[in-house]
Amino acid sequence: METNTFDFLEKMERAGCTAFSEAKTLAEFRDLEVQFLGRKSELGLFLKSLALLPPEERHKVGKRANEAKRAITAASQSARARLSEASFDVKSEWIDVTDQPCSLPVGHLHILTTVENEIVDIFRSLGFDVADGPELETEFYNFDALNIPADHPARDMQDTFWIREDTRSSQDPQDHRSARLLLRTHTSPVQVRYMETHTPPFRIIVPGRIFRSEATDASHEHTFYQFESLFVDKSVSVGNFKYVAELFFSRFFGKRIGVRLRPSFFPFVEPGFEFDIACTVCDGKGCSSCHGTGWLEVGGAGMVHQSVFEAAGYERDRWSGFAWGFGTNRLAMMKYKIPDVRLFQSGDLRFLNQF
Ligand code: DAH
């Protein structure tokens, strides 16, 4: 029985080694692997059956069987090396490092950022500095310092996202900066913040994001962008405002744009106005965009209220200035004929990729 077994192993080894050394393709090589070294190959099954032999015999036969397996494995390894080298095809593996790279999609600025940059550039060219303030604001800066006390009906004009209740201790009556926190409802609070640390004359603009707790529709959003502009000096007039506004809008729309003021009320200015620009679609003749009036409402403006100067720490009646604010979204909508304010934050690439 032993002689037969050794003969079998001898034959297996020879057959395996010869087959691998004669293999011509990688496919053939893979078949041979299964045939001679696989778990279900003759040798594989034989190795498994060793467990059935008595220990002494198992040791001797096992030793010889492992030798056969090692020899076939060595033959298979050299066959693999020989065949994979032969199958290397220079043409298909060739990489032209001077080839044009394929173009990858690249992002671009959001249309609101582009418009904001355009607006900033125009104001900069008119000598305005850019100022900034926090989006999480205190009740004091958003309302009180702008002459809008707690019981003032004007607070209702701007539905507010309140964030934190007043947590001040009652022993601290001097602390007029209420600890009540909110998401700023306009960029006007930056007027006061800036004036606290700067002395006139100065002119600034404040681009920024603002929040209103209100229902959304094609012309209302809960989160949008605004521009505040503030010009303070010794004898600033409404005429100065109208001149700067006309210059700004004419540059922004690339054609002469007239501005008109309508008396209005904002607690932080006196007198206060709403201002309109000549309709950019019909140039003031009257069309469906301006409901036949020839004018488009753009924002609010006025001469800075002396109480606001006072809240910022200035002496009353020492300075004069104009302040105005308008919506960046609204301006972008006018310039690029965007019909719905909600598109800006929709994340819809079909909309965003147009700009
Ligand atoms: N803060 C006002 C709002 O968001 C807009 C505004 C009106 C700003 C009049 C001003 C101003 O600077 O003078 O509705």
Number of helices: 12
Biggest sheet statistics: 7 strands, mixed
User: What small ligands are held by the chains?
Assistant: 3,4-dihydroxyphenylalanine
The percentage helix is 25-40%
- The structural domain count equals 2
- From the 3D structure, determine the CATH topology of the largest domain: BirA Bifunctional Protein, domain 2
Shape: elongated
Beta-strand percent range: 15-25%
CATH architecture verdict of the largest domain = 2-Layer Sandwich
CATH class of the largest domain: Alpha Beta
- Biggest sheet strand order reads 1-5-6-10-9-8-7
- Which regions have little confidence, pLDDT < 50, spanning 5+ residues? none
Which whole number gives the mean pLDDT? 91
Tell me the distance between the termini: 87 Å
Label the structural class: alpha+beta
Task: Provide a descriptive summary of the structure in words.
The chain is of the alpha+beta class and 355 residues long. The chain has 2 domains: 2-93; 111-352, 2-Layer Sandwich (BirA Bifunctional Protein, domain 2). Helices cover 39% and strands 19% of the residues. It is built from 12 helices and 10 strands. The chain has helices at residues 2-22, 26-37, 42-49, 55-86, 90-93, 111-125, 139-142, 189-197, 238-253, 306-311, 328-336, 349-352; strands spanning 129-130, 136-138, 162-164, 181-183, 202-211, 223-233, 259-264, 269-278, 295-304, 320-327. The strands form 2 sheets. Strands 1-5-6-10-9-8-7 form a 7-stranded mixed sheet. A hairpin with a 4-residue loop joins strand 7 (259-264) and strand 8. Helix 2 packs antiparallel against helix 4. The chain is elongated and about 120 Å long. The termini are far apart. The mean pLDDT is 91. Bound molecules: 3,4-dihydroxyphenylalanine. 3,4-dihydroxyphenylalanine is lined by residues 186, 188, 228, 266, 269, 300-302, 323-325.
